[in-house]
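FORM 7B: Structural annotation worksheet

SECTION A. Query
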Amino acid sequence: MVLPHSAGFPILAADDRCPCRSGSPFAECCGPFLAGTTAAPTAVQLMRSRYTAFVVGDAAYLLATWHPSTRPTALDLDPRLVWRSLQIVRTERGGPLDREGVVEFAARYVDGDDRGVLHETSRFVREDRWRYVDAIG
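SECTION B. Predicted structure
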């Protein structure tokens, strides 16, 4: 599995543990989603793959999985921001047969000497595939 690589971001091997903390190897977890060989079947799996895209600096994947109604024209990801862990706090709907879903998560990061947590409740919709819409609340 070969993915585009952005300078300054980590490169993941197929047998590396997936950054989304599922416990599965990258090639069996978020790797196929980022490679474009399959679409995430649930909102939470899309959330996990988007987190992994932030870890590896895959702005193209982030834009492709962002709903057109709220998607920015470009993303400038900073390789100095290092994502350390993802915790899924809760989910509402978002299954393979649902049209909408909500995922609340906490993502820990390091930015130089600063440490922080991005805590967000995200809204997702499924049309042709699951897409991130926006943060709510």
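SECTION C. Observations
The two ends are 37 Å apart (CA to CA). The CA atoms of residues 64 and 131 lie 8 Å apart.

SECTION D. Sign-off
Analyst initials: ____
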